[in-house]
């Protein structure tokens, strides 16, 4: 059973007040984000679906994946989406020293020109976070998880996680990964349709 909260608890946000958890807005704006790409099997499909709704998003890319598939990474940029650093090796912050963590991020910088950063698994220590902020990074978290990566979460639950919790200014997490593809390919078009019909626009996060 997955105990990860769909909606980020307020207490967690207060522990890391210098991180970006949402984008407060008086207008109907939603911020879709995609982690772990670029992936040949799913990223280009994601770009095509976003284009149908004139939606912009933010892709937090793994440096190793970008190095392997620079063509797909360039497609993300060409479509006008924002990019962010998701480390080079998808490292777990809680199990990695500050020095090694920053070194992995700097390795990813060679392929990802962005000062937006999202920690893999959401794992980051206060010292890692403050060090990144000192380097000029914006640490972007989220306030709504689709939980698309969990094979025990059904497609409909994945969809409902987003539709029931997202509001104006929400930062929503999907994954353009093979593991998440079944749930994401079902949920994403329906999320775009649902919120578009309600007058929302989908924006990228500015670096």
UniProtKB/TrEMBL annotation:
It is an enzyme of class 3 (hydrolase). Its EC number is 3.-.-.-. PROSITE patterns: NODB (PS51677). Residues 28-203 form the NodB homology domain. Keywords: Hydrolase, Metal-binding. It comes from the Bacteria. GO terms for molecular function: hydrolase activity. It holds the Pfam family Polysacc_deac_1. InterPro entries: Glyco_hydro/deAcase_b/a-brl, NODB_dom, Polysacc_deacetylase_ArnD. CDD domains: CE4_NodB_like_6s_7s (cd10917). PANTHER family: CHITIN DEACETYLASE 1-RELATED, GLYCOSYL TRANSFERASE-RELATED. This is Polysaccharide deacetylase family protein. It comes from Lacinutrix iliipiscaria. The lineage of its organism: Bacteria, Pseudomonadati, Bacteroidota, Flavobacteriia, Flavobacteriales.
């Amino acid at each position: 059973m997955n105990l990860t909260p769909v909606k980020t608890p307020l207490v967690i946000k207060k522990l890391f007040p210098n991180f970006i958890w949402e984008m407060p807005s008086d207008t109907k704006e939603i911020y879709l984000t995609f982690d772990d790409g670029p992936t040949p099997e799913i990223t280009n499909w994601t770009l095509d679906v976003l284009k149908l709704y004139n939606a912009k998003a933010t892709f937090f890319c793994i440096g190793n994946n970008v190095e392997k598939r620079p063509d797909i990474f360039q497609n993300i940029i060409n479509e006008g989406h924002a990019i962010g650093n998701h480390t080079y090796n998808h490292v777990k912050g809680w199990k990695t020293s500050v020095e090694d963590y920053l070194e992995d991020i700097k390795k990813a910088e060679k392929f990802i020109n962005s000062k937006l950063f999202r920690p893999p698994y959401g794992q980051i220590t206060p010292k890692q976070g403050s060090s990144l902020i000192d380097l000029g990074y914006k640490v972007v978290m989220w306030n709504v998880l689709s939980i698309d990566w969990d094979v025990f979460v059904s497609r409909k639950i994945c969809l409902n996680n987003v539709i029931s919790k997202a509001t104006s200014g929400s930062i929503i997490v999907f994954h353009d990964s093979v593991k998440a593809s079944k749930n994401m390919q079902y949920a994403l078009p329906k999320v775009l349709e649902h919120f578009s019909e309600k007058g929302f626009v989908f924006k990228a996060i500015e670096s």
